[in-house]
Amino acid sequence: MMSDDCRVRKLFRDLTGVLGVGGTDARVYTAEYPQVVRYERGQRFDLHQDAFAWEQAHEDGYQRHATLLVYLNTVGLGGSTRFPELAVDVQPQRGQDESEVGSTPKPFLITSTSSTFPLLSLVPNMAEKRKREDVLTLDLVIATRENTQKLGYFVDDTVVNPGFGIPFYKTVLEGANYEHATWKDQACVRTSQIHWREDHSVSWLERHMEMTQGFILLGKNPGLFVLGEPTHDREDLDEKGRGKPDPDRVRAYIIPAGMGLILKKGTWHDFPVSCGPPVSAFILNTEEVVAALASMPKPAPMDHGDCFKLRMAEHFDFTMKFPDPRPFVQRHGLVPSPIAMPLMGTEGYGADMSRQEVKPGWAGGKKVTVIPVVNVEVFVPGSGGPSIQPHLQSTPEVANRGWRDYGNRRGLQRLCAMFKELGMPATAVVNSEAAKLEHVAKALKESGWELGAHGLNNSSGAAKLSRGEEEAYFKQTLDDLQQSLGARPKTWLTPGFSVTERTPEIAVQSGIEAFLDFVDDDVPYYISHESGKRTLCLPYCMETNDFSCVLTKHFDGRQYAQAIEDHVRQLAKEDGEKVVCLGMHTFVAGTPARVLALTEALGRLQQVPGVCFATAAQVCTAIKKTEAFSSSLLLLMVHRMSEQSTPRNQRLMKSGSRRYGWAHHCRPKCKKTRCGLCETSKDLAPGWAVNFSLQNRASAACTRDASELPVSGADPMGIEGYGAGMSRQEVKPGWAGGKKVTVIPVVNVEVFVPGSGGPSIQPHLQSTPEVANRGWRDYGNRRGLQRLCAMFKELGMPATAVVNSEAAKLEHVAKALKESGWELGAHGLNNSSGAAKLSRGEEEAYFKQTLDDLQQSLGARPKTWLTPGFSVTERTPEIAVQSGIEAFLDFVDDDVPYYISHESGKRTLCLPYCMETNDFSCVLTKHFDGRQYAQAIEDHVRQLAKEDGEKVVCLGMHTFVAGTPARVLALTEALGRLQQVPGVCFATAAQVCAAIQKTA
Predict the structure, then answer these.
(1) pLDDT at 53 over 60
(2) Which parts of this chain are annotated as the region Disordered (predicted)?
């Protein structure tokens, strides 16, 4: 037999479905009680007080509630109840701040009258309207000390009732015992790990009257607790009512990690539930309860001693459920890392986010809008990053780090000059730590580009941040960029695409207007959020990105430029308005080896009909203008429809409110409204009025100060990356005698310790003893060296050899080198060992032995040094100059020579070693063929010859790579052509050193 409470609750749930008030705030009141009384959450329906308050949570369970208030003249519900006519006023609930978890909704009250409906006339339609089983969906709330006060003692890092103290504990703040937290018999304690369950039904609730049960969550993950207020001492309930939970006072509480709850006497509860990841709990209980549960073969009601457990289905006519907690805990930043679930939503854009298309016409008749996006990045020293030669893994990192640093030192300026030459706009997305570098900030401010944001640095992103931390991450990035560059960015690209399911929402809340993180289309689109706000997405193109083309696919400069050109030309042949965010990095696209071909390709694209170039901000503005125009037209349609308030028009207007974030409501007394776009008053018939209003969605408080977010740490190589206590000094101009580019061919003559491995032509061949790859390397010293000697002699071109001292002990190597006429430099003992792990004394001995051995084998003491495998220490430049070295080739971060000054007062002359034209980079890493390799060298040098300044190119080559017949032919031809380029000359490292010393 259904109870009176159940019958009334069921009746008004059905009534809610009939009236269609889901997502609104409805008041139903009688003529006898015409006043509107504000409902307070948790108010109890009492038959004797002639009032019923019922609350149904919205299906998603996220603090948007449909509250039905009914004031009845209830006279004997057992069949003789009199239902008077009801006046129904339906109005939307104003935006509620979701961070007010557990607070009372504040409905917008309005006095009005509308058509009346006999309640009984609605009843026959109820079964037809209600097509699903009755479900009571619990609220999800974050547990706090305040909202759990009636349920238990909340445990966190706060000391409650401090004052209980032990006299000799001088550094302890201790709280008094919880007054009523007592156990019936001796307490027992245990731990448990609770895993995810798909069933969200609340099938059982229990309570204990003679003990207190406690749960404390361990680790990093929150837990869900279904808790109901005690009913045993409720004076407003009869004996039967006090023996079961009150559904109106049962909620699903999320207890954050590291916190807990000691239940008070009579609190209804179920066992904790996982919020996605496993949650571990420390549980306090009694032997009686544990023994009773352990003795049951399957769940069943209990009424034994202090164990009182109910099967909910036996007492209630509905199913009680809690919403899926995973999106909730993700949104509120309660889990440290993404949960294994479709957090990015069904469309892949983010939790509770959906896609909306952009109105056509924004491109002004153009078919393809290309947005050049220049990534300006820095990396935390020691954390690694993109590599030109991934096999170089020594610490400290010099070669790959220097290659990346080259981008900000020279590549950025080269791209600025390229876009200026083309008269082409561009958008830079900038790490805020990069913008703190003086030469970077100066170049960006003078570029005329739009300046966007790209996080703090490219070694840390948002993926593992909580909501509060991610909000702080956005704020710190934008604040720092505004301070460094003078303007607050409106365009955002997350470093390394390390987004969370909240990133698009946080971006728009932070003032971002153009969001580049998604790559799934070639048309712009919006992402709409629950708050009503929208994020404009300009898809970032992965196919034309220089990382994809150069570092992954190993395209040479001309293949890379051709891929971009083909991509854009194809889009220009298709219908629609496409956008191409053309991502490029200063240390990839900004190198001379690629800028030459890239400039030519972009210049050709400027002439293609239907193709234009713009910044992200310009595209955003164009789309906004189109949307505003469309919205103005839609407003006129709304105003016209309001004059004929047909059901179809009302449906259309509701659809428009969902799409455009409008709120609509019944305002019968309103005769006019002001159009938010055209600023003109419109006469409206009674009925629908349009109000532009967006709900505000607040976020959880930041749990860490922004200063705690990942930032660059201490670097053993010093602030500038050259060594401890060392600083850079520029070389005086004029040393090149009017030449723009001085090419130093650097031939690496190497040996490897047998069995230690080394570079491979077929890396899969790993047998021991090593034959194929070792023989390929040995071929270099046996034949390749002689071939390179002959090539340079034929060309009449000087060269510098850097030689392992153990290689110079090979008779055929020493003979070839002595006869070559080259400068002979040093390259350590062998290429299987370097200096990286040596102490200072060991490194000094390493230098001495290398130089002594080479002097003995080759007849002269070298003055030029290259460390094997760039395995340097923070002392290497200083030890080199102390050892008599005059030209130091270990750094790769520039294309002009410079000094490194030491605390001792000495200076090391650095001639940067070029990684982009190195045969290892081109052939072994990028897999260029011989002609691609030669073309890369030629393009690199020709581009530098077009630029201002006195550049140097240390053209590294290895006897077993560049010295093979498959490459020497094309290499000879390319070098011969470069000898004819005005402003280009060839020299040894010693000759450049001598020229600079003369100028100094």
Answers:
(1) no
(2) 230-249
DSSP 8-state class, residue 437: S
For 585-610, how does the pLDDT look when each residue is reduced to its tens digit (9 = 90+)?
Answer: 999 999 998 999 999 999 999 999 99
- Cα separation, 445 vs 739, whole angstroms: 30
| Structural contact between residues 592 and 941, judged by C-beta atoms closer than 8 angstroms | yes
The residue that leads in pLDDT, 665 or 814, is 814
Q: Do 65 and 173 fall into the same domain? A: no
Q: How far apart are CA 633 and CA 638, in angstroms?
A: 9
Q: Is-cis flag, bond preceding 798, omega within 30? A: no
Same domain, 757 and 853: yes
**In this structure, what token pair is assigned to residue 127?**
């079964």
| pLDDT at residue 72, rounded to an integer | 32
Average pLDDT, the chain: 78
DSSP string, 687-699: SEEEEE-------
Token pair for residue 794? 């034929």
Residue 892's alpha-carbon distances to 398, 555, 593, 916, in angstroms, are 8, 21, 15, 10
Instruction: Measure the CA angle with vertex 631, ends 630 and 634; round to 5°.
Output: 90
The confidence band for 715, taking pLDDT boundaries of 50, 70 and 90, is: low
The two structure tokens encoding residue 838: 């040596």
What pLDDT score was predicted for residue 545? 92
Distances (CA, A) of 899 to 699, 912, 988: 51, 11, 18
Q: Are 128 and 45 members of one domain?
A: yes
Q: Point out the domain boundary residue: 132, 156, 173.
A: 132
- Which residue do the tokens 């220097």 mark? 402
Q: Report the alpha-carbon distance of residue 418 to residue 518 in Å, rounded.
A: 27
> Rounded to whole angstroms, how far apart are CA atoms 495 and 478?
14
546-553 contact pairs (CB < 8 A, 24+): 546/583, 546/584, 546/585, 546/588, 546/589, 546/594, 547/386, 547/583, 547/585, 547/588, 550/588, 550/589, 550/594, 550/926, 551/386, 551/588
Question: How many helices (H) and strands (E) in the chain?
Answer: 23, 44
End-to-end C-alpha distance for the chain, whole angstroms: 104
Break the chain down into helix, strand, coil percent, rounded to 5. 30, 20, 50
pLDDT of residue 815: 96
Q: Which of 625, 613, 564, 627 is nearest to 450 (CA)?
A: 613
Place of tokens 């202090």: 306
Give the total number of structural domains in the chain.
5
> Does 564 lie in the same domain as 463?
yes
How does DSSP classify residue 177? P
Cα separation, 395 vs 403, in Å, equals 15
Q: How far apart are alpha carbons 638 and 629 in whole angstroms? A: 14
Gap between the Cα atoms of 851 and 799, Å rounded? 19
Tokens of 721: 């990356």
Residue (of 912, 900, 913, 905) closest to 729 by Cα position: 900
- Summarised one tens digit per residue, pLDDT across range 303-346 is 877 788 999 999 998 999 998 898 899 888 898 876 655 555 55
In 43-137, where do the E strands start and end?
52-57, 65-71, 86-92, 116-117, 135-137
Whether 799 and 895 share a structural domain: yes
Would you state the structure tokens that stand for residue 774, as one six-digit string? 């070792």
Contact 972, 795 (CB under 8 A): yes
From the list 536, 483, 530, 473, the residue with the least C-alpha distance to 508 is 536
Which helix (H) or strand (E) segment holds residue 420: the answer is helix 412-422
Task: Pull the structure tokens for residue 545.
Answer: 């990105």
The reported pLDDT for the residue numbered 765 is: 65
Q: Are strands 368-376 and 611-613 parallel, antiparallel or unpaired?
A: parallel
Centre a 10 Å sphere on the Cβ of residue 966 and count the other Cβ atoms it contains: 12
pLDDT by residue (tens digit) across 269-301? 999 999 989 999 999 888 877 777 778 888 888
* Structural domain of 943: 731-999
Shared-domain flag, residues 797 and 839: yes
CA torsion through residues 662, 666, 670, 671, sign: positive
Q: How far apart are CA 568 and CA 367, in angstroms?
A: 10
Q: Is the residue at 723 inside a domain?
A: no
CA–CA distances in Å: residue 299 to residues 224, 302, 307, 374? 20, 9, 13, 62
